[in-house]
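Reminder to self: tokens first, then the designed residues, so the page reads top to bottom the way the pipeline ran.
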């Protein structure tokens, strides 16, 4: 049964859809998925893509977002999520997990994991969360070597390599723009400028570059939360909501656990829980039952 154990759409088509979306004139919305079930929900609701955040993966492992995760952990989670959805999946590859040669290997591993693209950033390795103070960026030439290695290692030209710069909050907006131009010249397909603050800053960045641009609309950070329609009117091509689903889930989980602790029962929070039937619907229990009975519901002929 097609699509039962993995999404039926080939990864080459997902990558092509990502690239077509970036050129469509319509903003591509990529909510973050902290697991495969959330990715399934993102597709069902109708978004254009799925994002896998390094900060979310770190938090899921009980770690701060300071460069402690490994390529194996990141690619493994990316594979789990990409497997279940027909949507393109963009993944956070931090600084490429080392020197330029490591960035090159990172691209090949993420290609093999079924991702549609990744972003590499110009922070000093190990990195830290893009909305924290105290970040440091490598010289532009070093990031260009990182990008050259990543682009050279790419086997599928459809795989999207996005360059992220954290320079705006360190060297200023004009310096970040110059870096972004250099990164595009080095082969980046998409540019992600972290921690811009206002619509005016997003507009200035758009006016300075012709390369497709990605906006980060993370909550409680340095950026004003700008609606997708406004970003589209400015000329942005994609937007990520990296931590939103984790924050929603953790807020609900904490409230429910405190209720159970205080009351000794979960009966007062049932109306805030996903029903078993809805979970089974997302997991397609019925389709698995049909698949299983279709294969094993038979009688062997005598003498065979």
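Designed residues (304 positions):
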């Amino acid at each position: 049964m097609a699509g039962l154990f993995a999404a039926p759409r080939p990864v080459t088509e997902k990558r092509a859809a990502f690239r077509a979306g970036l050129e469509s004139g319509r903003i591509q919305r990529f909510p973050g998925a902290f697991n495969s079930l959330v990715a399934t929900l993102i597709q069902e609701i109708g978004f254009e893509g799925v994002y896998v955040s390094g900060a979310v993966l770190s938090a899921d492992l009980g770690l701060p977002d300071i460069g402690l995760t490994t390529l194996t952990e990141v690619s493994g989670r990316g594979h789990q999520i990409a497997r279940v959805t027909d949507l393109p999946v963009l993944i956070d590859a931090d600084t490429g997990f080392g020197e330029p040669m490591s960035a090159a290997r990172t691209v090949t591993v993420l290609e093999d994991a079924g991702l549609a693209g990744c972003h590499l950033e110009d922070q000093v390795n190990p990195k830290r969360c893009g909305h924290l103070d105290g970040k440091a960026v490598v010289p532009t030439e070093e990031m260009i070597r990182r990008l050259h290695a990543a682009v050279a290692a790419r086997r599928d030209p459809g795989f999207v390599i996005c360059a992220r710069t954290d320079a705006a909050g360190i060297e200023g907006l004009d310096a970040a723009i110059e870096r972004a131009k250099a990164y595009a010249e080095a082969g980046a397909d998409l540019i992600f400028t972290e921690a811009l603050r206002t619509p005016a800053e997003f507009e200035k960045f758009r006016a300075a570059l012709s390369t497709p641009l990605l906006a980060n609309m993370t909550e409680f950070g340095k950026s004003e939360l700008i609606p997708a329609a406004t970003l589209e009117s400015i000329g942005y091509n994609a937007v990520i909501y990296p931590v939103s689903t984790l924050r929603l889930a953790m807020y609900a989980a904490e409230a429910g656990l405190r209720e159970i602790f205080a009351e000794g029962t979960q009966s007062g929070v049932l109306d805030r829980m996903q029903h078993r039937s809805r979970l089974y619907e997302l997991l397609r229990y019925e389709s698995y039952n049909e698949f299983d009975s279709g294969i094993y519901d038979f009688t062997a002929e005598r003498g065979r």
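The longest helix spans residues 244-263.
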